[in-house]
UniProtKB/TrEMBL annotation:
Family, as annotated: Belongs to the mitochondrion-specific ribosomal protein mL46 family.
Source species of the chain: Syncephalis pseudoplumigaleata
GO cellular component assignments: mitochondrial inner membrane; mitochondrial large ribosomal subunit
Keywords attached to this entry: Hydrolase, Mitochondrion, Ribonucleoprotein, Ribosomal protein, Transit peptide
Cellular compartment(s): Mitochondrion
Every Nudix hydrolase domain range: 85-228
Protein name: Large ribosomal subunit protein mL46
């Protein structure tokens, strides 16, 4: 049986944290740039003994920067400033359906089926007569997750496939197919939110790649991990 699935992702909203190596590298680059920069001709721009020359020298020694910071601190002293953490809501399991989490990572939409195995997977479904892969992907995504999402499909060609055999009890009940080949289409969400139909899918979540590895069945994750 030919099946099409959608790998729907929300791209990162903020830049990721720098590694220790990257931090050291950029610090080295900045220091090297200062060391190799041509000497600023102070005597050309500032008259000797002038106030502007004294301000320049104080700024070069770092004295003026400290005074400016103290002045800024005195202006905001007493005001309550709350900084939103970069990993907002990331540790809350209640937020697995929120798109405002794991802001520096990709999030992927997964749906839950009402069965004992392979409960969590990407939205997917079989092709109907004379239907193309990208058409089936859009239809199945709308049927399972609603039409309240602004979604863009990257292309009309699948990015990969996963083939598996049906269990014996399924083949006995539906002997016309002994397995499925799932072709995956890639898409991005720009706005909106998923709303499962409660029939084909009973729940949904937006998960990071690391969370997918903990949620999917091992063989299913092994088949799709290189497509993320």
């Amino acid at each position: 049986r030919i099946v099409v699935g959608t790998i729907l992702s929300r791209p990162p909203q903020i830049t990721r944290d720098l590694t220790d190596f990257e931090t050291a590298y950029f610090a080295h680059r900045q220091e090297a740039a200062r060391a190799s920069a041509p000497v600023f001709p102070v005597e050309f721009y500032f008259k000797k003994g002038s106030e502007m020359e004294r301000v320049w020298k104080r700024r070069e020694r770092g004295e003026l920067a400290a005074e400016e910071w103290d002045a800024l601190r005195s202006q905001i002293d007493g005001q309550r400033v709350e900084v939103t953490p970069r990993d907002a809501l990331f540790d809350s399991k209640d937020s697995r359906q929120s798109l405002n989490r794991a802001l520096k990572d990709n999030l992927y939409l997964v749906v839950k089926r009402d069965r004992s195995r392979y409960q969590w997977q990407f939205p997917q479904g079989g092709l109907e007569a004379d239907e193309l892969l990208h058409q089936a992907a859009k239809r199945e995504l709308a049927e399972e997750c609603g039409r309240d999402m602004d979604v863009w499909f990257v292309g009309r060609r699948p990015v990969g496939f996963h083939q598996y055999a049906y269990p014996a009890e399924h083949i006995k009940a539906c002997p016309e197919h002994d397995g499925a080949k799932v072709f995956f289409m890639r898409a991005h969400i720009f706005a909106g939110q998923a709303k499962v139909d409660g029939k084909e899918a009973v729940d949904f979540a937006w998960l990071t790649r690391q969370e997918l590895a903990q949620t999917f069945e091992p063989d299913y994750y092994a088949a799709i991990k290189d497509l993320l």
